[in-house]
Amino acid sequence: MKFRSFTKAIFALCVTFCILVASNLSASPAIAGTQGLTYAQIRNTGLANKCPDILGSSRGGRNFIPLASGQTAQISELCLEPTSFFVKEESSNKRKSRKKSEFVASKLLTRSTSSLDFVKATVTGNSDGSLSLVETDGLDYQPITVKMPGGELVAILFTIKGFKATTAPGVNGITTSVDFIGVTDVPTYRGSGFIDPKGRGLAIGYDSAEGLPGKRNSFDNRSLKDDSTSKGNFSLQVVRLNPETGEIAGTFECEQTSDNDLGGVEPKEVLIRGIFYGIVSV
Q1: pLDDT at position 266
Q2: Distance (Å, rounded) from C-alpha 78 to C-alpha 204?
Q3: Facing residues of 269 across strands?
Q4: By the 8 A CB rule, do 109 and 145 touch?
Q5: Disulfide engineering: 82 pairs with which of 151, 183, 221, 274, CB 3.0-4.6 Å?
Q6: The pLDDT of residue 29
Q7: How buried is residue 253: exposed, middle or buried, by Cβ count under 10 Å (0-12/13-18/19+)?
Q8: What 3-state class would DSSP assign to 166?
Q9: Distance spanning both ends of the chain, measured CA to CA
């Protein structure tokens, strides 16, 4: 009997402890991996590359940040952390193989510097109840390298620069069912001041490396440098929201092109997925 009573007491203590822990977690809306840590504690741990997360209602919940027509809100501290990378792989024998090009999972080689952070954006309510989002500032691009299953290295300038997106009409505010879908500007991986191993460049360096530029091989464009900006598709899916603090979190998907060596090689199509976190101020 004494043993049974002792067991009941231990069980009651465990239940009480679990309830207290759960209440503390629900009271703290934000889960920040670096909150309260010093620089020495974060250094060389990879935590600086992690985005915060929040505890809140899941996709389709009732939490709501209203935005009337013409009203604007600011998104600050927007952090985007890639978690998976896919590169479209072309068939090696296009005549005999009927296999279509498909995205294959690739491994991130860049160390803990792949996230975008401190990005700012403006959200505006429209007359039809939709929302418009425009990225304005921040660390909005990051050069990274991934490795395909066959061993090929692919350089990517992961970016949300110039992101302009809209939502479906009738949302009338930010909810956990809102998707911001739009396009981004994808600058070249290398700038106009880059000089290749043969001394060729766009703004500086030689114009060509051929003895007779007039006889240049039309299939080799490495002497014809081009730093024009391309476009990419980007979407933000709000999954969790805390209306009291204005914190939002969710997932993102980015489809863009890889590095083209300033027009010298054909770029690859890249698909990047991950999570994001931000703070909305109305």
Answers
A1: 87
A2: 36
A3: 257
A4: yes
A5: 274
A6: 47
A7: middle
A8: strand
A9: 62
Token duo for residue 32: 């920040």
Both tokens assigned to 91: 């068939």
The DSSP letter of residue 160 is -
Burial 159-193 (b: 16+ CB within 10 A, else e): bbbbbebbbeeebbbbbbbbbbebebbbebbbeee
pTM over 0.85: no
What phi, psi does 55 have (nearest 5°)?
A: -95, 120
Average pLDDT, the chain: 82
Write out the two tokens for 278: 């931000």
In 3D space, the residue among 186, 160, 180 whose CA is nearest the CA of residue 251 turns out to be: 180
Q: Residue range 160-173: average pLDDT?
A: 94
Identify the DSSP state of 132.
E
Q: From CA 74, how far away is CA 117, in angstroms rounded?
A: 15
SS3 247: strand
DSSP labels for 30-93?
Answer: EE-TTTT--HHHHTTTTGGGPPPEE----TT-S-EEE--TT-EEEEEEEEEEEEEEEEEE--S-
More confident residue, 12 or 65: 65
pLDDT tens for 93-144 read 555 556 678 899 999 998 888 999 999 999 999 999 999 999 999 999 999 9
Structure tokens at 256: 């863009």
Q: Distance between alpha carbon 2 and the CA centroid of its chain, in Å?
A: 58
Residue 56: is its pLDDT beyond 80? no
Comparing C-alpha atoms, which of 249, 247, 240 is closest to residue 277? 249
**How many whole angstroms separate alpha carbon 11 and alpha carbon 260?**
63
Residue 151 token pair: 């061993």
DSSP H helices, the chain, are: 2-27, 39-42
- Rounded to an integer, what distance in angstroms lies between the CA atom of residue 151 and that of residue 163? 32
Domain ranges of the chain: 56-191+227-282, 194-226
